[in-house]
């Protein structure tokens, strides 16, 4: 059974400007949010795949959702070594609860949700900045590949149809946040 790679969802996020503005401007372009629960075996690969490409315009929010393995300790170790990383420890409340906890402190103009048992491509941030510099967009989705333990692609991702994207966006708007179901739908359609 292969792992997922590059399942990633990005959306523009606005909230109370007093919370995200400093000296009249937002200093963070992108907040990566990783809900974490019992993924000690693959968590470092996920975090490292983001860290190698972040800039001062990024923050990484790790949400330990009551993990009973060493995931929380791994999060703390990374936070001690890198100022772009923030950690939230909370009782287990599920994926949406973890994402919402991170959204409460996120400062980015854009929010990127990354599953903590996945990893992102090493050129993803560069591609993202390229898209954002050319297009004024509210949501960007990236596909995913199923890969084996050596990183070889087992199954290529497929593009979402316009109708599928409209259905996903409708669900996002109705829910107010991206739910596990919405992300699973994106992943299931992209695999």
Describe the fold and architecture:
This protein has 191 residues and is α/β, with parallel strands linked by helices. The protein is built from seven helices and nine strands. It has helices at 17-20, 43-51, 71-81, 95-105, 124-134, 162-175, 180-190; strands at 3-5, 8-12, 30-36, 58-65, 85-90, 110-114, 139-142, 145-147, 153-155. The strands form two sheets. It has a six-stranded mixed sheet with strand order 5-4-3-6-2-7, sandwiched between helices. Strands 1-8-9 form a three-stranded antiparallel sheet, with no helix packed on it. α6 (162-175) packs antiparallel against α7 (180-190). Residues 1-9, 14-25 and 178-191 have low confidence and may be disordered.
Strand pairing plus helix content: what structural class? Answer: alpha/beta
Poorly predicted tracts of residues: 1-9, 14-25, 178-191
Helix segment count? 7
Radius of gyration: 16 Å
* Broad shape: globular
Spatially, the strands of the biggest sheet line up as: 5-4-3-6-2-7
- End-to-end Cα distance, whole Å, is 14 Å
Largest sheet data: 6 strands, mixed
Helix content: 25-40%
As a percent range, the share of strand residues is 15-25%
Please provide the ordered H/E string of secondary-structure elements.
Answer: EEHEHEHEHEHEEEHH
Number of separate strands: 9
Question: Could you report the average pLDDT, rounded to the nearest whole number?
Answer: 75
What's the quaternary structure here? Answer: single chain
